[in-house]
């Protein structure tokens, strides 16, 4: 089989699987015509899909048809690095909540996700749970002032948080001009539905608590930082050092 033939077949297998996952019951003859292959070729493709673990069921009869088994569950998922980071943070939040609703399979899901990272990244994600804090619900005035987040800035914040990289941001506090500052995102703090980052602020050389919905223009820098003692940030949880 040539490289082109192999590529065509892989693309065809992906297309067949996507069609099956849509819930359609597919007629073999119609599908073969749509894909521009013979029924024999299509039958070989289906046999290969079964060998790869996709539970394809076939109807007997002249027309023939294929569908996914009713027992088919979640298959393999391909996550980007940023998606995996977001999921790790979400799992850490769920672990901190200690809700029975979330705990049934949380451990095994976390283990599988950690295993998908490389050795260096595994060391970084190992301490995520201890760096994510869940507090009380935000006050009504705070909830009412909540603004839509800058999705790109938050994605970069998450990456800098996990990789322990300095982050340059623009921060906008009420009735103050926006400021550019370099921070160490040491902890994330959730007062539903508001997220804060507990940071060491290089501009002030002090602890600051920054609302994530007020962060824009985030740019991770090459320099990394060491985790500072949590005791340094405890006063910030009681309202000190907060840039509301």
UniProtKB/TrEMBL annotation:
Classification via PROSITE patterns: WYL
Signal peptide stretch: none
Superkingdom: Bacteria
WYL domain boundaries: 154-219
InterPro entries tied to this protein: CBASS_pafABC_assoc_protein, HTH_11, WH-like_DNA-bd_sf, WH_DNA-bd_sf, WYL_dom
Helix-turn-helix type domain span: 12-63
Protein name: Transcriptional regulator
Gene source species: Actibacterium mucosum KCTC 23349
């Amino acid at each position: 089989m040539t490289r082109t033939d192999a590529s065509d077949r892989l693309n065809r297998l992906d297309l067949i699987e996507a069609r099956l996952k849509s819930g359609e019951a597919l007629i073999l003859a119609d599908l073969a015509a749509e894909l521009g292959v013979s029924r024999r070729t299509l039958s070989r493709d289906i046999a290969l899909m079964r060998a790869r673990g996709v539970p394809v069921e076939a109807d007997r009869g002249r027309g023939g048809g294929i569908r996914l088994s009713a027992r088919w569950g979640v298959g393999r998922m391909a996550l980007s690095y940023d998606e995996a980071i977001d999921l790790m943070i979400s799992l850490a939040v769920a672990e901190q909540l200690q809700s029975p609703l979330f705990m049934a399979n949380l451990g095994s899901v976390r283990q599988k996700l950690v295993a998908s990272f490389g050795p260096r990244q595994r060391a970084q994600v190992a301490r995520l749970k201890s760096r994510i804090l869940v507090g009380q619900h935000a006050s009504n005035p705070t909830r009412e002032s909540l603004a839509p987040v800058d999705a790109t800035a938050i994605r970069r914040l998450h990456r800098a948080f996990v990789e322990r990289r300095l982050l340059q941001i623009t921060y906008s506090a009420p009735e103050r001009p926006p400021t550019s500052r370099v921070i160490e995102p040491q902890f994330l703090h959730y007062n539903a539905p508001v997220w804060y980052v507990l940071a060491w602020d290089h501009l002030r050389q002090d602890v600051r608590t920054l609302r994530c919905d007020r962060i824009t223009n985030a740019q991770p820098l090459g320099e990394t930082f060491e985790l500072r003692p949590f005791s340094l940030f405890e006063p910030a949880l009681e309202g000190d050092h907060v840039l509301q």
